[in-house]
Amino acid sequence: MPAERQGAIVLDNVSLRLGSADFHFDCAIAQGAITAIAGPSGSGKSTLLNLIAGFEQPDHGRVLIAGEEVSRLLPAYRPVSLVFQDNNLFAHLDLFTNIGLGIDPALRLKPADRQAVSRALSRVGLGGFEKRLPATLSGGERQRAAFARALVRRKPVMLLDEPFAALDPGLRTVMADLLLELHRETGHTIVIVSHDPQEVERLANDVLFLEGGRIVLGAPKAAFFAAEGPASLAEFLGHR
Ligand SMILES: Nc1ncnc2c1ncn2[C@@H]1O[C@H](COP(=O)(O)OP(=O)(O)OP(=O)(O)O)[C@@H](O)[C@H]1O
Predict the structure, then answer these.
(1) DSSP character for 167?
(2) Phi and psi dihedrals of 201, rounded to 5?
(3) What distance, in Å, lies between the first and last C-alpha atoms of the chain?
(4) Known SMART domains for this protein (predicted)?
(5) What is the pTM of this model?
(6) How many CB atoms lie within 10 A of CB 235?
């Protein structure tokens, strides 16, 4: 593979068909950067993220993370942590247990792991919330808990699928700032699907813009916002 194709995440000529939808992705996502995936509804943003996470596998081509091919690995074996819009906390388990599951699905937690759970909760502003059930939290607090779970996994790649879409605009800004802070601390590679050009502007170093299951523009943020392209791009930029 040529040097310029090296990245924290590489989709090497990946193609996939789901029902009548065809996807083709060929890109390298930079190490330690925040890359936003944007594009109209149905353009393939979640599918691209699912290919990286392992919820979808390519029909052809390869997915590499940190130089290792992971195309056929199940999600649990990939070096990624996930934060989704509905943050998938288990309703009947308290926050300590929910976050501990991020370290070990069998919950065999060593004392250091238990400390890491409490530290992660404090880190996201939920210190002392260990015994709370998800239903007793606000939407923003649940999203913070999902961040805490991603943090304890200590994986070098964090994947977020519209993590703030259900939150009100004020809280969205607070959570975006928290994500930037965590990124500065960890230096992780972050890939975030976003519908919101302001969020892309606030967070991203690089942007991949999708249409019809393909990447129609991949550029650093400044170039992206100055770019001319398909009508869908003009429409996205028009909502700034
Ligand atoms: N399992 C599947 N079977 C059939 N079609 C699918 C499947 N998964 C996704 N699709 C189709 O592929 C297209 C892309 O879906 P995807 O969820 O990746 O888009 P998206 O850009 O994330 O959309 P949105 O912004 O609306 O969430 C859609 O037309 C969707 O209906």
Answers:
(1) S
(2) -65, -40
(3) 37
(4) AAA
(5) 0.90
(6) 10
- Domains, the chain, in order of start with CATH, read 1-79+158-240 (3.40.50.300), 83-154 (no CATH)
Residues with CB under 6 A from ligand 1: 18-19, 21, 39, 41-47
User: How far does residue 173's CA lie from ligand 1's centre (Å)?
Assistant: 27
How does pLDDT run across 80-117, given as a tens digit for each residue?
998 887 667 899 999 999 999 988 888 899 999 999 99
Write out pLDDT tens, residues 150-164.
888 888 999 999 988
The residues, any chain, with a CB within 8 Å of residue 65's CB and separated by 6 or more, are 8, 9, 52, 78, 79, 80, 157
pLDDT single digits (tens) 39-61 = 999 999 999 999 999 999 999 99
User: Is the four-CA dihedral 180, 102, 53, 79 of positive or negative sign?
Assistant: positive
Residue 14 · residue 57 · CB < 8 Å: no
Q: Which residue's alpha carbon is nearest to atom 27 within ligand 1?
A: 41
Dihedral over Cα of 54, 159, 188, 106: its sign: negative
Indicate the top mutation candidate among 17, 25, 47, 56 to test ligand 1's pocket, ranked by most ligand atoms within 8 A of CB: 47
